[in-house]
Structures are given as structure tokens and as C-alpha cells.
Amino acid sequence: MFSGAFTSVGPSGWESGVLHQTHRTGDLQPVNTSTMMMFSVSHKTVFVVDHCPYMAESSRQQIECDMLTKGRAQGMIPLAPVSKSLWTCAVECSMEYCRILYDIYPAKKLVNYIVSDSECHILNTWREEDQSVQELMTALAAVGPPNPHEDPECCSILHGLVAAVESLCKITGYQHEARTSLADVAHRVSNRGRIICLTNAKSDTHVRMLEDCVLETIQEQNKLAAGSDRLMPIQQCELVLVHLYPQGDDTLVSDRPKKEMTSVLSSEVHSVRAGRHLASKLNVLVQLHFDLASTTITNIPMKEEQHANTSANYDVELLHHRDAHLEFKNSDIGGGSKESGIRETITLKWCTPRTNSVELHYCTGAFRISPVDVNSRPSSCLTNFLLNGRSVLLEQPRKAGSKVISHMLSCHGGEIFLHMLNSTRSTLEDPPSISEGCGGRVTDYRITDFGEFMRENRLTTFPHTPVDAAGRAPFERAKAQLERHTRYWPMIISQTTIFNMQAVVPLANLIVKDTLTEDDVLTCQKTVYNLVDMERKNDPLPISTVGSRGKGPKRDEQYRIMWNELETLVKMHVETSERHQQVLECISACRSKPQEEEERKKRGRKREDKDDKTEKNGKESEDKQWTQDTDRLKGKVEREKENESESGVIKDSPDSPEPFNKKPRLMLEDLQPQEKTKGPVSLLSLWTSRIAQANSRKHPEFAGRLNSISNKAELYQHLKEENGKDVHENGKTTR
Amino acid sequence: MPTVVLMDASLSMTRPVSLEGSEDFQRKNLAVHGLTMLFEHMATNYKLEFTALVAFSSLWELLVPFTRDYNTLQEALSNLEDYDKTCLESALQGVSNIVQQEWGGTCPCQVVLVTDGALGIGRGSLRHSLATLKQRGEDKKFPLPFPFPSKLYIVCIATAEELQATDAMDNLEQLLALSGGEGQIFTMDAPLCLKSVQALFGKLIDQAYMPFHAVLRCGNLASDVQVFPRPEHVLLDEELEPIPKTVHTELEIVGFIEIGDIASPPVLSRHLVLPIAVNKEVDEVGAGAAEEIEEETSTNQMAGKSPNFCVLLHGSLKVEGMVALVQLGTDWFGMLYSQADSKKKSNLMMSIFEPGPEPLPWLGKISQLGPISDALENPYGEDDSKSPFPVLPKSKRSYAQNVTVWIKANGLQTDVQKILRNARKLPEKTQTFYKELNRLRKAALGFGFWDLLKGVAELLERECTLLPDSAHPDAAFQLSHAAQQLKLASSGDPKYLAFDHVITPMLTDFSGGGSGTDRM
């Protein structure tokens, strides 16, 4: 299952739209501002798209939609191909940028879309509910294509750029939250952003004019923002100008790599032909802007549409956070810089899943994906397969050597993640087995019962009730429930009687609850009456005889143990409510009567019972964790014993046998006062005791003599008290 | 986290320590003494750590590959010979190769460099390496920072004053900074003697090799445990001063989740959770506890027989196929599960999630996970047929909804073909025909691609003329109706341009009863 080395991935970025948008521990050198800061440049992206009349021009990339089907209408003249306008190209490529962005970062990466002609049209806000491709498409449909007959003099991209800067000053929900939570250091919440401007510029000078305009606006707006609560000055702005022109034309604007205009503004210019060039440019940009990388899943078997029984292999390219390629960073498989603009992808091989079994893989990162070509047939086949709940392991293609599974595609709640699995040697290999450690030799754990306990203490989500009436969060309540359920929970079978009895189950399940209903109390009482009934009928109890030789305790003693344990359980919960108290009262009331009855009936057996009892007692206290409980039990038993000895009549009656193991006091010191009470001490006894005292300092007294009655030691005593032996062994004998 | 001990075996290590009236010690002897103490400590308290021993001078040699056998390491250490001058750069390169070969590029490693601080002269010296740092090509880059996450501990058999007298201290500090800053430089207190070298390695042990002890709790059930390897602190990447988050020594179980529901979550690290005997007096300082091994074994035997919560938990997690969600700190969680190493051996393992209130999107916020008994009805169903997980996100991803992308020509062509295919099967396919038509219409409006609407209208009109005589009369009506509607939109009529407007099938006499759609 887990086969790899122990790997640690470092702390995550605050804005992670992926799991583990991390840099690794010990990899902290040249600090990259975008990962170290709370709000990086990619928190806010403003699209400014030119809507001036010239954008209505055709891109001159023609698309044949009249695909003549074979055998139909020969000689028919096909309809003229359609071609997208510059505007359509700009819109669909920017929408694709947003689609990928929203797929991979469903939160905390926001887009504001602005369209510019004779004025600016702001299509959405920074609010989360405005952040979706559907929202933007609706707004774009309302704007429509540019009007070619509008007066070009009135129209300008500048309106949009000014609005973009203003928009960057507006605070987002996340920034607001951060400022509120950091009240005293609110000024440290950063405000950065990126403007992607899609336009058709006239010349390099025109481009420079646009840059100057943005710079000036930032300076003005920052002054304004400084005095406002709802605005924030821009600390850093990246301007990405994309000049698009129809195919076949020569560009009037030259490419220019990123350049710092001032400490606040950097600018870069991309000059691209409309159509697929623009699409691939924006694809490269979205990868650069959001730290993405590409993986191509290869060898995906797919049924052919026409021939259902043949299958061919397909490839699907996915985008995801680049950390999913962390382990390739130093290897020969891939990596390298993306600055060249040439898209690089790492190829991983599909491994057809054999079973649907649930396994827990050792996964060091999980990253949301977005297919590059979302509605192509291979892509949708793959994504549908995953959305249906199957997982796919991915293998590194190697020319030689063993198969290395390094990734897994899996879907959780309608989102597909690329999991990074560990594929190197594990530092935890060959650990000592749990059976070799503490508690490893114990064989009668209540595994099934604890399994049941775990099922009862499974978790579920309460998204709509963050706290209950008492102000406790759901996970606090879960912990409180665990506390209640474990107040009395013996870990091994031989430690408990009641939990081995089906008859106790209703009460045991109810008593741990926080509140009991009237009905619950009734059920508990019924359980108790049922037990009383069992006792009257003298039904056997599942008392463990593990550790004791012989038959174990007598039936009535078994019931005593059971009642004691039941009382212990209920007492643990008696403070919870009145009704819990009622259950305890019921037990106390029910158990006393039959007990007295028994006592009257079976007086003769009392002595024997006592020994059995002490034995059981000693055994129960084995477990340190329950010392407290057993102490209480012990106290009870001892009190009972006292009661019995008080009824001296029984003891002195001639037909009650002499207890065979009534041990005389061991120390002579103890004996002396006893003797004293009998009258004057003889010289002999004085002498004997003195000698004995002196001897006792030199050597331990012969055990036989110590235990002897009138100096006659009984031999082979242990044969009679086999049971008593166990008591001595664990050292908890009650004499 | 495996350890590489990088031992300086250059001639300068044989310099005698000038001590009046005592035996003649070389610095090397002190270093060996200190490392012996480290190895003894690890053998007792940190025995699952893999350690390798590398000696270096102008060349380097892997004396002992990664092992948990500390006797082998000890033996190699005592047979260490003396060589020529110090050349740290190549040795560090060697360490880098050794680690990557064994553990790959993602496993964090600790490097313990033991040196006297005489860092060589001329070419190959650390001074020279650092001075030429910026004049190197891709192929001759300085080995630091290591390509794997690392901690560099520099243990100097020299006093701080000694190192500061030359530029050695500066160079070592620079080296540490280059490694990424995780680590420390340890120096000796004067005078150089056995006692101070013990103190020196004691500091290293305290810093890097103290076993992590904690209490694992599930309500009132509890067990003392050792977590191995030690959970490292995590720095949260916030703009404000990052405060390292450390794992609490109280690990509290919150509740239980099925393995299928937690679904191979990403984790920062994995750790063994080993139950330890409760009343065993653990030698916290750890030095020289070897003689107690005999006694310890018998305590362990005793401990083996008394029930332990970890064993119970492990057994039930294994049988039920579940994990326990465990809280490690404020807004920091992990999971406990049974991990099988082989068919016979299995262990209680803990994986640590990324700190934060919502480490796994499919579980939602951890603080919002509560007991099922609080829910109105059991979210798992009476027969365990359901599950409250995964938690669904607010919006669907693009691949889970039928998005329209026409960036590639064939995307557009497929969509047009779909409409035409259905057009030829009218009126049976009326419903799908209009569904596809409306999808195309919406996308065309969003993209401002009115020409396409016109083009498709023309295609539909032509289809109409091509209808065979046998065609259902309704087909012609629907085709011309659809074409008409698209044309109206492409001409810019605001009524037909509305994004939410839907082209509905034309009501004809043939469509029976009005709806005109139920002809499937």
C-alpha cells in the first residue's frame, strides 16, 4: 500500500487554491514574493478587452462549418466558411484563461472583467458569486460584438485601463477579512494585482502611451485610496499588454519582455496573431501567472465510436499546480523553464484500474486539474470516468527497470485531483510490529466492540450550524461525546461482564447519552428488571474464567460482580441528568432485595464465597486505568464483609465449618497485645517471644510454623487453596 | 529523517589538544568520542533512524551506507584513518548524491558535519568555494542548497573564539545560510576536553535527536506514545512573522471516518505511533543508558502483557477499515490508521495534514465535523449505504458541466454537426435538436460570434430544401422555424439577442396536443 519514503512537503501558501501550494522546508532561499505574501499578484486579475470598432474586424482565420457528409448531395456548393472577429478571438481566449483558473483555483483567485469602447463596461465585481465563466458569458452576451459603425474617435482602451486600476484599488472580500482579523496590523495586508489588456495597438509609441496612462492612474488612485477605508493603494501591478492583429497582417507592435517601469508597475508586451496563436499565448500566460504545469496522460484506452469492440489509445493533457511535478525537479524526466513560451508537458502512463477497492495511498500532495482541451472526446471520456468515482494510477514511463507509480487521478465531490504518490524508499521500512510493543501480548481486546464504538463515533458535517446552543463547535461536541462514551470502557473481554451480555446492551447504549427521554429511562429500567429476572432464574453469566483455575466464581457471586460493574457504569453518568440518576436508583433498589434473599437462603456458603470474591477483586484491579473503580468496588466488598462478620451468630454456630485458611497474625509484635489482654504473661511466654524476636532478626520464620495452629503445620495446604494462589501472585491480596 | 554524518578526516583533525597534565588527545579523538555518544543515544532512544557515515578530506568515502545498525557505525568510526587536506565542496556533493540515490529528491535529511573548523587552503577550500560561487556554470554548481529538504548541523571540535579568529566562522555561517538556513552551528566551550565534547554533542542531541513523547487520547482512554520520526514544526506562509507551528504532546482523537471517505488525502509527513510503557522512567538526557537495557527488556515484557489503548485502536481501525481524525494543535489535524508493512507486521501510523481549518476540501471545515448522533437522521443510512462525504463544492468545475469551447476549429465543427445530425432525424429528435441549438446560440452570443448564427441558419435552411419526400412534414416546419429564430438574433434584434431567451419548438398541427416535444 504505502511503499515510499517519508516525505515532507513544507507549509502552504495562504491563498492556496490547491492543496499544498507549498515550498519545501529548507528551500527558503531567494524568497519569492508571490508565495511568501498573503495576497500575491495573482489574487486579483483584471481583464481589459478592447471593444472599439476595429475589433469587429475579421481575424481571417476561417472555419469550415459545412462539413459535407459522404454520399450526400454531390456537387452541392458548400456554404462559405465563417471567421471569428478579433473581438470573438479575444473573448474566447480570455474565457478559456478564466475557465482554467476557476477549475484549479475555485477560491481566492479573482477576476474582474472590463470591456472598453466609448466608455468602460465593468462586467462583474470581486465578489465570489460573480466569479464564474457563466456569469461572465451572460454579461458578455449583453455587451455583444463591437459596433463597426461607431465613431472610432470616441472609443479607446484607455477607459478600460483607468477602470482596471480603480478596480485594483477596491478591496476584495478576502482582503477585508484579513484586515479585520489583523486589526492592529491591518496596513500589512497587501494589495497587488495584474492587468491583462487585450487590444489592437497602433504602434510601440501607442503602447508606451498606454503604459504611461496606467502608471499615472496608479499614482492618482493610490493617493485617493490612502484616505479611504474601502480602497487600498496598489503596491504592485503587473501590466500584460497583448496586441492582437488579423492573420496575414504585419505586426506594428514589437514584443517586449517584462520590465520594471517603477517599483509599483511592471509591464510586458506580447504581439500575437488572432486565432490559435492568441489561444496558445494565453494558455502559456495562465500557466506562468498561476504556477501551473502540464501533464499528459498517455495510453488511455478508448472504445472507438464506429467499432465498439476495438479500442485505441489516446492522450489527454491536463494542467495543474506545478508542485505536482516536485519530484521531477531534479530528474531527467522533465522540468526546465517555461520562459521560452514552448509548452512543456510531463508524460505519465495510464494504468488500467484492476479493482474498485479502497486503499489509503501515501500521498504527498493533491492538486486540482483542468483539461487543456476540455470538450474533446478523449478529455471528456477521461473526466467522466473519474467523475463516476474511479481512480487511475499513473506510471512513469521508463525504458528499463521496474514500474514506478508516481501519481493518481481521483475525484472528490465532483472535483478531479492529481495526487502525488510517494515512490521512493521509505524511511519507516521494517518497523517493529505493534504486537511486539506495549500491550502487544494481550489477546482478548474488545476489537469488535471498539469497532462498533468507532462507527457510533463517526463524523458528519454540520456546515449550517457552526455552533450549538451551548456555543460548542461540532468538533467539540464530537470530543465531548467520545469523553462520555469512554467513562467506563474496559479494553479487554476478561475485564468486563456487562459488555459481554446482550441483555445489558439497551441500557449501556442509552446511559452514555447526553440527555435521556422518559422512554429511555423506561428502557433502562426494563433492562434492569430483565437482569433481576435472569438472576432469579439463575441464568449463567458470561464471566471470564481467564486467569483463574477451576470453575471460577459461584453463580450468585457472578451476579454480584455484574451488578457492581453495572453500577460503576451508571455512576459514571449519574451527574449528567436527573434521569440518569433515576437509572442508578433503579439498579440500587432492584439489586439489594434479591441479595438479602440469597443471604438468608445460602448462609452456609458464605465463607467460601468470600474467598472467591477476593480473588475476583484482585483480578479486576490488574488494570491500572481502572484502579479507581476497583478501589471503589473493593471498598464495597469489604464493607459487605464487615456486615457479615457483624452477624456473629452465624460464625459461632456449630455447623459452620472452621475457615481452613484463617491465618494467625504473622508478627509476634501483633500477637503480644492480644495476649496481654488475656491476663498476666508467663515467664515462658516472655522467654519464647524474646527468643522468637531475636531469631526473626536473623532469619525469616519457617512459614509452616507461622501459619500453624497450635504449633501443628498442615502440609500441602496449597492443594486446598489453588484459587488463592493467583491472588498472591498479583500482589493485591486482601487479607 | 535519515542522517548523514560527514566526518572530517583531514590531517588537521590530528592536532593535539593542548591540555596540561592530561593524556594526549587529538581533536579526532574528541570527535570520535562525541559521535560515539550520539550513536549510543540513537541506538537507545532513536533506533529507527537510518544513519550513514561519510569521511572526507580531499576525497570522500562512504564508510557505512544508511543503516540502523549502530555497532557497524561505531566500528567504522573507530577504524577511521587520517588523510590529507579538507575539501568540503566535493564531500557535500557526495552527500547530495548518496542521499538522492537512496531516498530520492523529496525525502528530508539531516546532515551532521563534524569538523575542526580548519576548512582547507587554496583550491577546494571552503573559502575558495564560497568566493567563486557566482562564477559557475550550470554543471559546476555548489552542492548547497541540497536538492532535497535538509537540515545542516555543523559540529565544530573547536571553540567559537578559535573560529572567529580566522574567517572560519564566517564561512560556516555562509554555508549554513546557503543550505537554506535550517540547522545550526555548534561550538565547544573551552577547554577542549572529553567533558566539553560531551556537552557539545549533548546540545546536538537535544536539538535534533530527542524522541517525541505524547499522550494519545480518545475521551478517557489514553496511551503514552512515542511518535517517530519527530514531527517537525511547520512555518505558515503568511506575510506576518511566521510562527512555527509545533505538534502538541496531547494528541486528541476527534472522531472516526471511513478510509473511502478520507480518500488518500495529501499529507505533510507520516509517523509511527509506538505505545510506550507508562511508568517506565525514561532517561530524558539519554546519554549512556545502555547498561539499563537488560532491565528495560523485562519492563517491556511486563508492558506487553498489560492492555494498551494503541493496540485496541489499531486492531479496530484495521478491521473496520477506518481512520481516526486526531487533533494536533489549534486548527491542525492528522489521521491515525493501521499500516501494514508486510502480511504479518502492521503498525499504528499517523499522517499529518497541512495546518489550517480545512486541510481537505472533501471533508469541509474540520471544526464543522460533529457526531452523527447530533444529525436528524443517520447520514450513513441505517445500513451504511450512504455517506456525508465528500462535501460538494459550491460550483461545478468546467469538465463536470457541458461547457462550450471553440478555440480549436473541430470544437465548433462538432457542435454544428451535432445540430445537423439531429436535424435530419426530426421530428424524433426535436428535443435534442433544440437543446443543442440553444447551447450553440448561447455560446455564439457570449463570444459575440453573430456570423456563426447566420451561417447555421443558412445550413438549416439548406437542410430544409434537402429533406426527402418521405420526411415528416413537421421536420420542415421546425427547421425553418429554427433558422428564422437564429437569423433574427444575428440581425441584432434585441428581443432575440437576450442571453436567457430560449428557442422553443414550433407548435404545429403535427406535434400533437401542443407541446410538440414528446415524439421520442
Automatic annotation (TrEMBL), chain A:
Record flagged with keyword Cytoplasm: yes
Domain of life: Eukaryota
GO biological process, one term: centrosome localization
GO-annotated cellular components: cytoplasm; integrator complex
Feature: compositional bias, Basic and acidic residues: 593-644
Location of region: Disordered: 592-679
Keyword terms of this UniProt record: Cell cycle, Cell division, Cytoplasm, Mitosis, Nucleus
InterPro entries: Cell_cycle_regulator_Mat89Bb
Subcellular location: Cytoplasm; Nucleus
Family, per entry: Belongs to the Integrator subunit 13 family.
Protein's recorded name: Integrator complex subunit 13
Organism this protein belongs to: Silurus meridionalis (Southern catfish)
From TrEMBL, chain B:
Keywords, in A-Z order: Magnesium, Metal-binding, Nucleus
Similarity field: Belongs to the Integrator subunit 14 family.
Top-level taxon of origin: Eukaryota
Main subcellular location of this protein, as a coarse class: nucleus
Keyword Metal-binding in annotation: yes
The protein's name: Integrator complex subunit 14
Location relative to the cell: Nucleus
Originating organism: Silurus meridionalis
Positions of the VWFA domain: 2-204
Gene3D superfamilies listed in its UniProt record: von Willebrand factor, type A domain (3.40.50.410)
One Gene Ontology term, aspect cellular component: integrator complex
